């Protein structure tokens, strides 16, 4: 059956199903709903009624964009080019909305760095760019 791509918002249940399928932590539906509603752009892939992949962009809509949560259901990974197609749709969105000065950012899960590099991302740090950073939630609570 064909894979269909859409930029319609997905449900929290669909989002959490995908997160669970790729082994990521699963937030409450309320948290997921808020996250999805505040996303700038979401591209999802369906086979029939089943969601098989998704990726989203968060940011300010002009200067800062972060590509997040690129997920393809394990049964569909490395077979149909779904991850690449979702990223292409995201790039199309960014070409329309990003200013030339925009920062277009992403975070690779462990072992996925080469996938993003093949798609044109620059892996930090470089000679001119420092490392990316992340604040663990547990550390945040100490402030
Ligand atoms: C990473 C992921 C999104 C890729 O999507 P996919 O649909 O499986 O990949 P595609 O079929 O589009 O593969 C496209 C290309 O990327 C390559 N690729 C996929 N995963 C790769 C990896 N981990 N390292 C290097 N190359 C990779 C494929 O070999 C293929 O190369 P080709 O075009 O030269 O044949 C998907 O495997 C996934 O959801 N993984 C689990 C969740 C995850 O880690 N997401 C990334 C979050 S940062």
TrEMBL record:
Pfam families, per database record: Acetyltransf_7
InterPro entries in alphabetical order: Acyl_CoA_acyltransferase, GNAT_dom
UniProt signal peptide: none
Gene Ontology molecular function terms on file: acyltransferase activity, transferring groups other than amino-acyl groups
Record has Transferase as a keyword: yes
Iron-sulfur keyword on record: no
Keywords: Transferase
UniProt domain N-acetyltransferase: residue ranges: 2-142
Top-level lineage group: Bacteria
Gene3D superfamilies, sorted: 3.40.630.30
Protein name, per record: Acetyltransferase (GNAT) family protein
Organism per entry: Sodalis ligni
Lineage: Bacteria, Pseudomonadati, Pseudomonadota, Gammaproteobacteria, Enterobacterales
């Amino acid at each position: 059956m064909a894979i269909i791509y859409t930029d319609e918002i997905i449900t929290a249940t669909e989002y959490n199903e995908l997160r669970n399928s790729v082994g990521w932590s699963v937030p409450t539906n309320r948290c997921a709903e808020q996250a999805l509603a505040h996303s700038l752009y979401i591209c999802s892939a369906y086979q029939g009624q089943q969601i098989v992949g998704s990726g989203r962009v968060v940011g300010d809509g002009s200067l800062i964009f972060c590509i997040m949560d690129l997920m393809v259901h394990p049964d569909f990974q490395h077979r149909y080019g779904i991850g690449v197609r979702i990223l292409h749709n995201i790039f199309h969105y960014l070409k329309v909305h990003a200013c030339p000065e925009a920062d277009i950012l992403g975070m690779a899960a462990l072992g996925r760095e080469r996938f993003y590099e093949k798609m044109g991302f620059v892996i930090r740090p470089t000679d001119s760019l420092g490392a990316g950073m992340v604040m663990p939630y547990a550390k945040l609570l100490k402030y």
